[in-house]
Fold this sequence. Notes:
Elements: E1 6-9, E2 16-19, H1 26-39, E3 49-50, H2 60-69, E4 74-76, H3 85-97, E5 101-106, H4 116-136, E6 140-143, H5 163-180, E7 186-190, H6 200-210, E8 215-220, H7 221-224, H8 228-232, H9 234-245, E9 249-254, E10 256-259, E11 267-270, H10 279-287, E12 295-297, H11 303-320
Parallel strand pairs: 3-12, 4-5, 5-6, 6-7, 7-8, 8-9, 9-12
Antiparallel strand pairs: 1-2, 10-11
Amino acid sequence: xxxxxxxxxxxxxxxxxxxxxxxxxxxxxxxxxxxxxxxxxxxxxxxxxxxxxxxxxxxxxxxxxxxxxxxxxxxxxxxxxxxxxxxxxxxxxxxxxxxxxxxxxxxxxxxxxxxxxxxxxxxxxxxxxxxxxxxxxxxxxxxxxxxxxxxxxxxxxxxxxxxxxxxxxxxxxxxxxxxxxxxxxxxxxxxxxxxxxxxxxxxxxxxxxxxxxxxxxxxxxxxxxxxxxxxxxxxxxxxxxxxxxxxxxxxxxxxxxxxxxxxxxxxxxxxxxxxxxxxxxxxxxxxxxxxxxxxxxxxxxxxxxxxxxxxxxxxxxxxxxxxxx
Length: 325
């Protein structure tokens, strides 16, 4: 090999540069090696990314292909009930054929409704949704713990941070898990800014209290940001959530938070990229998990906003060296 065609290898010993025309100095060589490490990615597992789609179809395989067309490898569960055996099989097989994971089955009922009859009906609905999640092989069934607020099922109430609230949530989680005994999914509670669990430490307390193998974590980084301190330092908050809860995380939500200028604190949900959530950190932490927990866009207004949010997260991933599944 001539002096003008010198081979340089990366630390992994797998990539060579043919440096033609002139020899490079040490700084130039190091820059090239760094660019190769960037091109090879940030390391860790590829991230499963997904969100709602707007194709009108009852064919699961067609729906799965639309997810793939958009660059998604994870999906919300199509409409179904636990009793629809053939439909569940078609969903499971159709999405698996396109390597699109069913990220979650949403329950979204107030398991702590102040009205006892409504509360009982809501809890049983959650049980049915957990059964569907297990049948379809979703990564999780997700709900929030609920609220004692009589008007808004997710609303604020002084008792939402109480021991009574935690104890009732533990009972509800155990009831759902014990009724279904899932083997292919886990039941999760999404953290909320003004009710338990409202951060990684209170979620750890909930995990210990529920004491069921089929109980996991659903992470929404925006929902944990409930103070100026957490907003300013959301990178550290995200890292703390993954450090403390990572081995239980089954699925995650993607949106963004902007601070609306007022005389009191007002964080508004916005399209990813319009706010301040550190998506480079969010994506990097996802690559470190023991499972490929999906990251799912939510709460946006229309297809155009989902296109914008998807493009932003894909752009951050490319800049960060994170690959998608």
